[in-house]
Amino acid sequence: HLADDVVMVTAVGDIMLGRGLGKRLQTGEDPYPFAAVEHFLTRADVSLGNLESALGSGGQPEDKGYTFLAPPEAAETLNAAGFDVLSLANNHALDYGPQTLLEAMAILEAQDIKTVGAGADISQALQPVKLEISNISVAILAFVDVPIEFRGFDTRSWRAGESAIGVAWADPVLMRDAIERSGVSADIVIVLLHSGYEYLSAPSPPQQAAARLAIDSGADLVIGHHAHVLQGVEHYGDGVIVYGLGNFAFEDGGVIESGLMNIWLDTEKVRSLEFIPLIIAPDGQPTPADPGQSENIRLNYYSLSRTLAP
User: Fold this and answer.
1) Is residue 13 within a helix (H) or strand (E), and if so which, with residue range?
2) H or E stretch including 86?
């Protein structure tokens, strides 16, 4: 490999194109939520995010606290924004049942967006997305491990099985095995991890254990989701863990501070990171933060990361 072979990855947080954003995509009224940020996504070699909803034409909502459904039109929008790979290993992928999950995978695939972390069975859910960029081979995996919800729903019930549609659960043995196998044929292994507690800016002990296990098993980079708030970056072992990037597109009236991360990797490791502060508008659209907001978000982000330093 040439010394200057580098892959640029842009990672964002939770993408939820249901609710008002979804309605506007369907009606064609102001249909494009990513106008203010797409230039960040399209210049990367690989843009990654977490699809925090079911996607498709419907089905029955599951009996749980929150169910999210993005319309089929959302797939085209995600493609236009520059997304290459989306994680489905989360606690919303089967909100409208297993058949809608398979529908989402097919609709996204038709838009040239690869999905990871879920499938028709466990072997598909554990299948890495493999990419070849600038003479560097990249493998991307995704796993979920979240606590039981306040109304009693347990995402673990969605685990993919030998012949069961579902998600890749972050079981330590499965994770280690899948990451080690991916590392055999890939220069870089990236793991997307949906884990921890919502609205807590400190990673939970199980979340930290799962992320570190991924690095110990050979992953170079772990990108976390689920908290809906920013969580810091940890340099651990030979890898980097980005614990949480908040929401990316999400109409929920929650925390508006967010960010995206540009990451440059070569065949050996993560070379550099660049954090770009974002604000989530009341309608759920991501926008670049203004200079004053930017400074505050950055300072907060650095202090969150400092608390993770050894």
Assistant:
1) strand 7-15
2) strand 85-87
Q: CA 269 to CA 91: how far, in whole Å? A: 30
At residue 1, the pLDDT reads 45
Ramachandran bin of 187, using left for φ above 0, alpha for ψ from -120 to 50, beta for the remaining angles: alpha
Residues 74 and 81: their CA atoms lie apart, in Å, by 10
Would you say 15 and 86 are in contact if contact means Cβ atoms under 8 Å apart? yes
Q: Give Cβ neighbours of residue 184 (< 8 Å, ≥ 6 apart).
A: none
* pLDDT tens-digit map of 51-104: 999 999 989 999 999 999 999 999 999 999 999 999 999 999 999 999 999 999
pLDDT band at 3 (very low <50, low <70, confident <90, very high): low
Residue with tokens 């990108």: 223
Q: For the chain, how many residues are written? A: 310
- 151-157 long-range contacts (CB < 8 A, ≥24 apart) are 151/64, 151/65, 153/62, 153/63, 153/64, 153/65, 155/90, 155/91
